[in-house]
UniProtKB/TrEMBL annotation:
Highest taxon, organism lineage: Bacteria
Species of origin: Saccharopolyspora terrae
Name of the featured protein: Uncharacterized protein
Length: 65
């Protein structure tokens, strides 16, 4: 999973933290999408992507309110 974001100064607001989660998901998806057709994605990398997407889904559900 994505570790708690490191902060300098004051804590990030909720929307900034959500933006970081979105970017991490985007980077992981881009990386896997590029490498998958070449057979370069391991099982552990697929599991990491699943964890990132699960965290993104959790954030999306939390922001429904």
């Amino acid at each position: 999973m994505i570790e708690e974001n490191r902060r300098i100064g004051r804590p990030m607001c909720r929307s900034a933290n959500f933006a970081v989660v979105l970017r991490v998901a985007q980077w992981e998806l881009d990386r896997v999408a590029f490498r998958l057709p070449r057979g370069e994605v391991s099982r552990s990398e697929r599991h990491r992507l699943a964890d990132v997407l699960t965290e993104l889904a959790d954030h999306l559900r939390d922001d429904e309110g």
